[in-house]
Design brief:
Largest sheet: 6 strands, mixed
Structural class: alpha/beta
Number of domains: 1
Number of strands: 10
CATH class: Alpha Beta
Low-confidence stretches: none
Radius of gyration: 17 Å
CATH topology: Rossmann fold
Number of helices: 7
CATH architecture: 3-Layer(aba) Sandwich
Strand content: 25-35%
Strand order of the largest sheet: 6-7-8-3-9-10
Shape: globular
Order of helices and strands: EEEHEEHEHHHEHEHEE
Mean pLDDT: 91
């Protein structure tokens, strides 16, 4: 018997404005434990919408999204899953400017009931895993773009998720920082064993994944491995 996938999308569609805008059309996709998948396509093709549906930050207009074999339909359920089992790294980092790097990372466990000392210890450990424990007390404005991206990755990793979703991890970085962040993402996956799904315009980064999913006009048009 085939193992139950970590995430399964079955004939998912996402429409806006009463169907006037169709972001995704009849998308079916599975993400296995330890998988690495690149979602590739032109701007406006539905890549980021797909990421948001995989983690429950948006809900499908049709079709189902299942986590470990169980259909998830409620936003509360998805919020709990993101707090425990899904890490998300956004293209624009979304760091709070008035919080230090460590405090930004701690935000991901604020709802988990951990004490202040435990939260700080976990945050420093997460920053250390991305090579930034020495920058823990710095505010975002004092960090480079590559460092801010690594803080965002540390925040996504702090709860040891089974799935990491990363939206355009190198899109706003120079070539040196892009190479560093790319290598970091795959090194972390190799050490921790989580599934990695990333959106990218970078063909070289996409080719490092075990699978590539090409999207155009809201549809999967090609799958490559």
């Amino acid at each position: 018997m085939a193992p139950v996938p970590l995430v399964k999308l079955d004939h998912v569609a996402r429409e806006f404005d009463g169907g006037a805008v169709v972001a995704l059309r009849d998308v079916s996709l599975t993400v296995a434990y330890g998988d690495s998948i690149a979602i590739v396509g032109p701007s406006g093709s539905g890549k980021s919408t797909l990421i948001q549906l995989i983690c429950g930050m948006d809900m499908p207009s049709a079709g189902t999204v299942a986590w470990k074999g169980n259909s998830v339909t409620g936003r509360k359920q998805w919020t709990e899953l993101r707090a425990r089992e899904i890490g998300v790294v956004f293209q624009d980092f979304l760091l709070l400017p008035n919080l230090t790097a460590a405090q930004n990372v701690e935000m991901a466990i604020a709802a988990g009931g951990a004490g202040a000392k435990e939260s700080r210890k976990k945050a420093i450990a997460a920053l250390d895993s991305v090579g930034l424990s020495h920058r823990a007390s710095h505010l975002p404005y004092a960090l480079s773009g590559g460092e801010r991206q690594r803080v965002a990755i540390a925040r996504g990793l702090i709860n040891s998720p089974g799935l990491m979703l990363v939206d355009e991890p190198t899109g706003s970085l120079d070539s040196a920082n892009a190479a560093l962040v790319s290598q970091l993402l795959f090194d972390l996956q190799a050490r921790r064993g989580h599934a990695l799904v990333l959106v990218t315009h970078d063909p070289a980064l996409a080719k490092r994944c075990a699978r590539q999913i090409f999207i155009r006009d809201g549809r999967i048009v090609e799958r490559a491995s």
